[in-house]
């Protein structure tokens, strides 16, 4: 299968994973390994990646030599705060330009603030960042983010951490059909079938954290997600049969039957 290309780099895995909500760094690494993910996102404001020399560093468990680290702006509610956070991350990661932008609008539902997201994206792209952006499943605003220069657009499937799955597949199809950059579902996936559905719709990838970290067995769920992504991608490439609501189509031929 064709690989996922983001900002000029090819990845075998179409599953991107987060690093929060695990019991410790050892479980984090075990789940990431089971998922097969190559891109790993890190909340700069919540996890130590070098800003606190006296605390355990996530990068010791998830090294940049093995994974593409995707610093994100979880917990930011303004464009200025998000830009400041990612500039700090770029310094900590020796000039690493790839990042995940998210600017939240509400602390309860964590829905994105799209005016501030658009503002931050424009600033970051001009500043040389390769921006992957969490956003509403709004086809118009997704296209605006692509035109600003974001390297991947990441509409939510449903609210962050909700596990509700894809609540508006029709909007996702509109976004996918109109995009020239990768479309990666971000937020709301609850189980492997949700990931499969996203891939069957034609999404280029899926990013998740809570669905794995809050499973009863995170490592086993990570393995299930890996398989779900792969199955969904293969089904999309294979092209599903047409739905037929009013006529049966027997699997076996009806002509040339014995006795006819």
Overview of this structure, please?
This protein is α/β, with parallel strands linked by helices and 260 residues long. The chain is 37% helix and 16% strand. The protein has helices spanning 25-35, 58-61, 79-92, 114-126, 139-148, 169-177, 192-200, 210-213, 218-238; strands spanning 4-6, 9-11, 15-18, 39-43, 68-72, 98-101, 130-135, 152-155, 184-186, 205-208. The protein has a 5-stranded parallel beta sheet with strand order 5-4-3-10-9. Strand 7 (130-135), helix 5 (139-148) and strand 8 form a beta-alpha-beta unit. The chain is globular. The chain starts with a strand and ends in a 22-residue tail after the last helix. The model has no long low-confidence stretch (mean pLDDT 92).
Strand portion = 15-25%
Uncertain residue ranges: none
Helical content class: 25-40%
Gyration radius, rounded: 20 Å
Count of individual helical segments: 9
Q: Strand arrangement, largest sheet?
A: 5-4-3-10-9
Number of strands: 10
- List SSEs in N-to-C order: EEEHEHEHEHEHEHEHEHH
Major β-sheet annotation:
5 strands, parallel
């Amino acid at each position: 299968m064709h690989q996922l290309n983001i900002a000029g780099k090819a990845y075998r895995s179409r599953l991107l994973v987060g690093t929060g909500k695990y019991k410790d760094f050892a479980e984090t690494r075990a789940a990431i390994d089971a998922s097969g993910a190559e891109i790993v996102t890190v909340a700069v404001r919540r996890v130590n990646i070098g800003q606190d020399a006296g605390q355990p560093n996530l990068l010791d468990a998830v090294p940049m030599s093995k994974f593409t680290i995707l610093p994100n702006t979880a917990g930011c509610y303004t464009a200025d705060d998000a830009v400041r956070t990612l500039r700090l991350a770029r310094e900590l990661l020796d000039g690493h330009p790839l990042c995940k932008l998210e600017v939240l609008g509400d602390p309860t539902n964590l829905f994105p603030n799209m005016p501030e997201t658009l503002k931050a994206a424009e600033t970051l792209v001009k500043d040389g960042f390769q921006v992957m952006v969490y956003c509403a499943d709004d086809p118009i605003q997704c296209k605006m983010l692509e035109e600003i220069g974001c390297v991947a657009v990441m509409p939510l499937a449903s609210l962050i951490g909700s596990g509700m799955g894809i609540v508006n597949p029709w909007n996702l199809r509109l976004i996918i059909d109109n995009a020239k950059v990768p479309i990666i579902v971000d937020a709301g996936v609850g189980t492997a079938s949700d990931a499969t559905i996203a891939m069957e719709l034609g999404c280029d990838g899926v990013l998740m954290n809570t669905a794995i970290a809050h499973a009863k067995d995170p490592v086993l769920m990570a393995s299930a997600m890996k398989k779900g992504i792969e199955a969904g991608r293969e089904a999309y490439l294979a092209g599903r049969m047409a739905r037929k609501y009013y006529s049966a189509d027997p699997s076996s031929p009806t002509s040339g039957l014995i006795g006819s």
